[in-house]
Write a structure and sequence with these properties.
Length: 304
C-alpha cells in the first residue's frame, strides 16, 4: 500500500485549494472525489465575487483549479470514501474499491441541498421539483415556476429563471432576504418576478407531475394556491459528514467542529470548506480553508 503524505476527501474549492498548497509544499497528495470535481460551484453560470478573477462561469473556475492541481502533481482517485480510520497515527481511507494510507487527512466533503421535507417531494423530484436552476431551468422555458429560499442561491436561481420563464414566484419564510441586497434590488426591477414573503410551501399538487403548490402565511395562517410548472428548492444545505462522525466531533447539525485553524479534535485530521462549523460559506472562504488546512497538515507531518 502506497503511503501518501496527505489524503484529501473532496475535490471542491476547499479540497482543490488544499491540494494546490500541499503540492507546492512538497507533500505527496491524493484527492478523493465520488462525483465531479469542482463541487457545487460547477452549476453556477457566473462567478463574480472571487477576488482577482472577474466574471467567469463556475465550471471554468473549477476546471482552472483542477488543472492547476494536476499540473503540480496532485493525484486523483474518483472513488467514494466510505470510512476513515486513525490507526497508530496512520490515516486509513477506505473507498468503495480500495484502501489508502496517509499521514494526515483533510475532510473537504462540502454539503448537499436541503429538501423541503413535505409530502410528495420525492415523488415530484425530476417531475417538477428541482434543486438546481442552472441545470434544469431550460426545461421550464416560457412557463411559471417558484423558487423557495432567502439566501444568495435562491436569489441567483430566481434571476436565472426570470430570463427563461414567464413568471417566477420567490417564496421566503421571512419578510427580508438573507442574500445580497444588490441581487434583491435587481429582482425587484423585473416585471415577471413576484415576492411571496413570510410564507412557506405546505402542499404539492399534481398527479404525474407538479401542477401547483399551496403556500401558507406564517403570520396569519392564510393559504393560497399557486399554479406552477416547476418548483426550485434553495433552502440551505446538509453536510456530507456521516461517514466521519465517529472519527471527529460534529455538531448537532452534522457539521465538523473546527475553528478558523481547520483543526478537528483528532490530531492530523482537518476540516475545510462548507462541511465545517463556520458563519460564512463562500468560494473565497472555502479556498482560505483549503490553504489553512494544508499548511497545518504540512506542519503536523514535519513534526512526526
Amino acid at each position: 500500500m502506497q503511503m501518501y503524505d496527505l489524503l484529501i476527501i473532496g475535490a471542491g474549492t476547499a479540497g482543490l485549494s488544499a491540494a494546490i498548497y500541499a503540492a507546492r509544499g512538497g507533500l505527496s497528495t491524493l484527492v478523493f472525489e465520488g462525483a465531479m470535481y469542482g463541487g457545487q460551484i460547477i452549476v453556477s453560470p457566473t462567478v463574480e465575487n472571487y477576488p482577482g478573477v472577474g466574471c467567469v462561469s463556475g465550471a471554468d473556475f473549477a476546471n482552472s483549479l483542477y488543472a492547476q492541481a494536476e499540473q503540480l502533481g496532485v493525484q486523483f482517485a474518483f472513488e467514494t470514501v466510505v470510512s476513515v480510520e486513525d490507526t497508530d497515527g496512520k490515516k486509513i481511507v477506505k473507498t468503495d474499491s480500495a484502501v489508502y494510507e496517509g499521514k494526515a487527512v483533510i475532510l473537504a466533503t462540502g454539503a448537499k441541498n436541503r429538501p423541503l421535507g413535505i409530502a410528495g417531494e420525492e415523488r415530484f423530484t425530476g417531475r417538477g421539483i428541482s434543486y438546481c436552476a442552472t441545470c434544469d431551468g431550460s426545461f421550464f422555458q416560457g412557463k411559471t415556476v417558484a423558487v423557495v429560499g432567502g439566501g444568495n442561491t435562491a436569489l441567483e436561481d430566481a434571476e436565472v429563471l426570470a430570463k427563461l420563464c414567464n413568471k417566477v414566484y420567490l417564496i421566503h419564510r421571512r419578510n427580508q432576504f438573507r442574500g445580497e441586497a444588490s441581487q434583491v434590488e435587481r429582482l425587484q426591477k423585473l416585471d415577471n418576478v413576484e415576492f411571496v414573503l413570510e410564507s412557506t410551501v405546505v402542499e404539492l399538487q399534481g398527479e404525474t407531475s407538479l401542477t401547483g403548490i399551496v403556500v401558507e402565511n406564517v403570520s396569519n395562517g392564510t393559504r393560497q394556491s399557486l399554479q406552477v410548472d416547476g418548483l426550485f428548492v434553495a433552502i440551505g444545505q446538509v453536510p456530507q459528514n456521516a461517514a466521519f462522525s465517529e472519527l471527529v466531533e460534529t455538531d448537532s447539525h452534522g457539521y465538523i467542529v473546527a475553528g478558523e485553524d481547520c483543526k478537528t479534535n483528532r490530531a492530523g485530521v482537518y476540516a475545510a470548506g462548507d462541511g465545517r462549523t463556520k458563519t460564512v460559506r463562500q468560494l473565497v472562504t472555502a479556498a482560505a480553508d483549503g490553504a489553512v488546512a494544508a499548511l497545518a497538515a504540512a506542519e503536523y507531518i514535519r513534526a512526526m
